[in-house]
Amino acid sequence: MSGQSQAGFTPTGTIATAADRRRVVFATVVGTTVEWYDFFIYATAVGLVFGQLFFAPLGADSAIIAFATVGVSFLFRPLGAFLAGHLGDKLGRKTVLMWTLILMGVATALIGLLPTYESIGLAAPILLVLLRILQGISAGGEWGGAVLMAVEHAPRAKRGIFGASPQIGVPLGLLLASGVMALMAAIAPGDQFLEWGWRVPFLLSVVLILVGYYVRRKVEESPVFTELAQRKEKARMPIVQLFRKHALLVIIAALVFAGNNAVGYMTTGGYIQNYTTNPEGPIALERGPVLWAVAGSAVTWLITTLIAGWLCDRIGRRTTYIIGWVLQLVGVFTLFPLVNTGEIGLIFAALAILTIGLGFTYGPQAALYTELFPASIRFSGVSISYAIGAIAGGAFAPTIATAIVAATGSTQAVTWYLAGMTLIGLVATLLLRDRSGIPLGPDHEEEQSVSPIYGLAKA
């Protein structure tokens, strides 16, 4: 028997119990939540404190420079994806996930200990960027492994909802990052927040990493990789095979994610937080209420991500995505008109509406990506597509939005930029066939290798 059947058998012939599956789901949720908390706490801090503490002496464009460091980490995601993809297809999904968790945690904790520009001068922003690069490498390898652990353990008819488990790590990470920052803004208000309050969320990462590491150690390796290892059918050079046979598929899959990621990074990249709290900006709200509004919108994002994961098991990945792109477009056009009112209730409403579309274009992604690539090169395909999509989408979305507003004095052009990215995601989705339920095991490599792109035959 290949892979994991509808009945729940693993490649070794044992039954995959409900308890086994719950353990996998719990481990992927905990692990990805910790990873994305670490990643987003940086983006939140950029919008609130890093511009002042690390980049302000660099000149009038310090805010743009600070947001650019959020994007710099994305440039190193492909390196993390290449390394993790190669090792994940050779050594296994679980091994890679353990190392990405440790790397992210160490980098995040060290940021919490960094001296500021006032203390060590130019070395401060340089060290900050280097640690952000390590976060980017870790993030580039994390997602693909978590997704495959969840989806390859899942029953065929429930891949969407199982795949949504690592996906909700993103809104949970945002919720946790925003909540902890908001709590510290209340405990250490004003100058105290700038002096030491912002450091606490970074240092808390040490505790979270220990929890995530413990949970992930208890999870069994993916059944698909286990079977590949037993058959000695692991690809020799998975990345080379991926680009030789599936380069166009990687690009199209990346554009699907780019359409979601550019819009999502209005909050996860810290842009809305900075735009609404900048004392020299048009709104100039207090940090705390804005952070709580972002945290609240993370809850609606989490809920709609789970709904979309459940729904795509019933109506297909492609159809769910199309609904999501329409909803996301609605959210894009209502975002700034509501945010610009300066009313915290309407700001929350704007973010909540936006996250409905974001959830519907993120919930099905794990199952969609897993079903696009053959088993022997799947980790490489999933990870690299995700990393390229992150660069094309969210990497510099906050920087672009900041530059647009600085140049035009208005958020209208930002809306059109986000709408354009949404339409790119829609077009990329329409180019792909729905492969819901395709067998994932190595017995079906020939079927998996048939291109899912409309108009193409075998890859």
Average pLDDT level? 85
The percentage of residues in β strands lies in under 5%
Structural class: mainly alpha
Which regions are unreliable across 5 or more consecutive residues at pLDDT < 50?
1-15
What would you note in describing this structure?
- With 459 residues, the chain is an all-alpha fold.
- It contains 22 helices and no strands.
- The radius of gyration is 21 Å and the shape is globular.
Key words describing this protein structure:
mainly alpha
Give a quick summary of the entry.
This protein has 459 residues and is mainly α. It has helices spanning 18-55, 62-75, 77-90, 93-111, 117-120, 123-153, 159-167, 169-187, 191-197, 199-203, 205-217, 223-231, 238-264, 271-277, 287-315, 317-339, 344-360, 365-372, 378-392, 397-408, 412-430, 445-448.
Secondary structure: elements and pairs:
Elements: H1 18-55, H2 62-75, H3 77-90, H4 93-111, H5 117-120, H6 123-153, H7 159-167, H8 169-187, H9 191-197, H10 199-203, H11 205-217, H12 223-231, H13 238-264, H14 271-277, H15 287-315, H16 317-339, H17 344-360, H18 365-372, H19 378-392, H20 397-408, H21 412-430, H22 445-448
